[in-house]
Design goal:
6 copies of one chain form a homohexamer.
Chain A lengths: L11 H6 L6 E6 L13 H16 L6 E3 L22 H17 L4 E6 L5 H15 L2 E5 L13 H6 L5 H10 L11 E2 L16 E3 L3 H4 L6 E2 L5 H23 L7
């Protein structure tokens, strides 16, 4: 019988009796926010839970990894002003993560991985993972959405630099996983007219401008949604789930040098 | 074409264009916590989302009501000490509700209903609903799980007084909705040995003792799970969805006297 | 010599030397808020302290129970917009309760009861009592004002459903306890025109709308203040103090099954 | 008819109709904490409310000043470790003051004075008064207990420097105001053995050591309680109420230069 | 070799190996805020760090005292409305102090002194020092700017009462320590037109009005900056550093009576 | 006369009168934390302020950029357990940044750049920059220390992957800027024995383990400090200041597309 991968499908006594080391509990963290005229606001939560489900299905039975129900809402204030965007503050999302981590610790687990589906959550999750490691002693990990947005097919330089939201990659993934929720006839192509200078500022990274979507894209799209296809989505998914399965396996048995 | 009841299946432009009054947005709030040896820790979140889905399916098309993705975790500290119980603090759950309500308000909606699946959330949701009404101006409503735990069949006096968790009612509902997650061979019958006095103190209400599950039940059960059946669950569900559909319809057009 | 029922009348050495088990410390929690044109804004704090004083006077000497000075202000934001309403936030009132509970615990007591005089405090006190039980280990209890607003005389169905604030019951109690503060010539009768439907929504309980007073009552009254009398107040008081004395006695020796 | 000095004795309509400028609302802030073997833990709250009541009784009718119910608990963590000491944190007491000030502002008043009965509250009240002035625009004032602890009779140098708690002054005041709560047979004389140096550090002021009572006084007394008398208390009270009445009158018509 | 007085110039191993008792760690706390037309907004931070440096240079080698880098920003909301004023809230400054104190404690030190350069910080630092003493067990001290604003030369009664900000004293100190930052041609003389009454209210102390600078001084000056000179600054500095050196020495070996 | 680059050297009237657009205010954010046996705990604060000073000195006069005094302490809890490490929490550092940003906004500036000297601050600053952009409307920027830790000379692959703290780069910079604070005789070479797998987890980035220094390095060093030299430091500094000057110039005139 295969391992039950959904921790909350078990009773408390079954959870109590699980062998927990090696082992890792995985918390998906999504977002509900505008994704252009053609994608549902559910996109990030839908992708993170579906990619995780596909990944878990590929894990060998000997890898002990259990997924929790998702935190369906993330920090999405960069998309405020677009109806349907739902946003938690950094402080509140941080508190949610700490309190769920404390519960994971109390159950006797040693490792917790945040499986993140939204770029706007990255800073909050990175800070929380560190602080949970320091205060609770759990070994904490972050797996960010760049891991499943890395295309195994060629894309344009514009898409590589600016195709970060509701563009070719994300649209392809939703086409592969939930095509009934995509309105491709509304898909657009839009790249922000970001200052291109001798001193490049980026939207993320070591020299960055804190941006709001409405500063740069009236439709909410950054990228070329019209280039998306279900085939590209399937290719992304296959690559990502293999990579993620290896990472989860490695995390489940991760140990520090001076523990 | 029937109305799309899942708000996050829509794009931001579709949400922008929805006629919003009359209308109500519904936020399911669940919990992940011990439910005895025989039920999954997911029970409350599973029930609240499934009951809501069944209710929405029965709503007439002219009722404008849209469900948000669930807040999957609630305030469950009465069940701490049982592995698998995941609990948010009152402060954090309150913050989650306020911030999601602010997003609902920003999208242009006038009414928000909390659809609650867990007794331990009641006080937090009642306080938050009031405060959201006062600070954001949204009309806010609470629908608590007692609405779908009111059996249309006879139960014993013990079950009526003490069958509040993982007993006949909840077990029957999970048997009706997700039987593969129930381990009936582990079901037990347990009533707390609560002081019975000339001056009755209860577990809730106007004269109450703040209880922890571990104070009163080693298995985590309050009630008679062995009396549960899928048939009883189906009967509960039928009664509840009809009642809840009427309540949601009434809420969608609720107005105050001096608005 | 009778027991000194007011804990703060004792010196720290006397408090240190009290036998504390069985025993309970009682914290009155009131409110200062509009109570219609005829009652003082002090009404809730006045009633809760006076009812408690009368109750303590009826306690047998062998019951060990000590009252603390009142928390004079509660959560009254449902009455904002009416001058003289003073309101603490849920977060602040919660913090007050936790910190006073921690002081009670440090003094060596095992039981703490909140003696509440205001409906708007109920959710906050219920949540705080649970959380204090979980975090401090104190046995915590709530006694809500419904306990002394339960008339031993017949009232109309409208009064029973909607007479919740500054109506027949509260006005009668103030007439009995502080008649000099009542301006009966200003007393009015007002019931909110709450939607009455096939699916009844109430102002409290399992299906409720979060209401503000100004939504429903220009005078601030919910009920029939003109029906009040000092005789009714005296009858309410006699019934209530007997019931409350029994509850406090039971609480003072309350033990859990698996302590 | 004399002015009703207790604001909460009025109905909301009466409060709405008060002429408010000139005028000041006064919030007494007390403390419940150890006061040696001979005084009740209620001492500070008892003194601040009684001194205020006496002061109000001496105010000319043309001075518009109204007292609120007291905040009965203060910040008393310097006395922790002595049973019966009840302490709010600085953050919580600050929040209480801000929220009550916001309610005072909403009622239409322009001035708020904190009438403080406890040295441990001074820093919190000073900071809160400033911040309420800055954020709410209320004109805010502090009247600290040194105003009524300034003896009109000779005291020793030791008492002047170190008689700060439960000594000659406070004991005399309680003897004058509530003699039945004093156990003079338990009164002691104790001065802390504070380092006396070429570079004097004090317990307050520009060069100070943050002290806890238990660091310096096993009985909780700083001063000579045995030197107290009801006559001294009456003299203190007479001096203080005259001075405080003048201050409250001045505050009630205080205006800034560039308002 | 003289003792290295700047703690952060040492490596962690050197800090680990310091003999720590007797000994004190000193945290300078400044402010960046308007100081009239003639002084830099840096004034308070500049003075507190410079005065401390001069004081440390005068400490005998056997006194173990180490200075931390300054908290450059303080609570300056009394000066809001004047561009260049930077203000932390009371809550945030309090949190900074607690967290730095916790780090000092973790390093093994027993004593921490706040060396304060701004009157608006006094209440926050006094409260924090007490709370750090109570919660962390560190012996905590406050040295406030009045210690170095006490002139060894005659000043006018107006200057003594109202010369509290950017007047003769502070301007003289900056002239002595950083004359290149003073624009004496812009120096003004201004005393607030504070109500002078039979019942004097002051800007600080036992009977005070919470003031904002803009209420009383359009230039931001309280005092006579035109009376300042570098010579007066040098005299202030000489007096202050001698006094502060003695205080720091006393603090470094301070012990309580019942430790 | 060259522009005064230190904002706090100006008076409030000078700040009021500055032309502010184009223009940017720069807030250096450092850290005080262990940097191995050979570097001072001040390293990050020292570097960030010195690199900024050098950069400002290279800015053309027409670029309007002003530096604020540094936030000397950062979030350094990854180095707890090493004496001398001083750490603010994420919440407190976030609050500091928001409050200082609000002051910058009130002064009339349009752009604020965080000039960061510590890797442990990155997540907090990224989140705060976004939130300040969203709530205050300031255009907010992050410049992280990787910008000045990018060597213009060859380094080993180990140093590139793991030389992140107190290794060749940072040691070289301190040797160039404050050689008197370096104890090169204590310099060590240490690389963490991080799991090297088919599925690489890193210390930062899209798949990461939240690490504590004590998990991986008993000396606190990650990298080869013995390879450092003042010449390398000078080369790093020259490259960095040129790059940073270009970035600051670009930021000072940054505009969004749909402002």
């Amino acid at each position: 019988m295969p391992i039950e991968r959904f921790l909350a499908h078990l009773s408390w006594m079954q959870i109590r009796d699980l062998p927990k080391d090696p082992g890792v509990v995985i918390l998906p963290v999504g977002a509900v926010e505008q994704h252009g005229p053609h994608l549902p606001t559910l996109t990030d939560t839908l992708l993170v839970t579906q990619v995780l489900n596909h990944t878990l299905a590929h894990l060998p039975d000997e890898v002990q990894a259990w997924a929790l129900p998702a935190v369906n809402y993330g920090k999405s204030n960069e998309h405020l002003g677009f109806p349907g965007t739902m946003s938690l503050s950094a402080a509140t999302l941080t508190a949610v993560l700490h309190e769920l981590a404390a519960s994971v610790k109390q159950a006797g687990f040693r490792r917790l991985a945040f499986f993140n589906g939204h770029g706007g959550n990255v800073a909050v999750l990175d800070a929380a993972a560190r602080d949970i490691r320091a205060t609770l002693g759990l070994h904490t990990f972050c797996l960010h959405p760049a891991l499943y947005c890395d295309p195994p097919f060629p894309t344009t330089p514009e898409e590589q630099r600016f195709g970060i939201h509701a563009g070719e990659i994300e649209t392809s993934l939703v086409l592969a996983l939930a095509p009934e929720l995509v309105r491709m006839e509304q898909a657009v192509r839009h790249y922000p007219d970001f200052p291109s200078d001798v001193a490049p500022l980026f939207m993320f990274g070591q020299a960055s401008a804190a941006w709001l979507t409405r500063d740069w894209s009236p439709t909410g799209v950054f990228g070329d949604a019209t280039a998306a296809s279900a085939e590209k989505g399937a290719a992304l998914l296959a690559t990502a789930t293999a990579k993620l399965a290896r990472l989860i396996a490695a995390i489940s048995r991760f140990e520090v040098a001076h523990g």
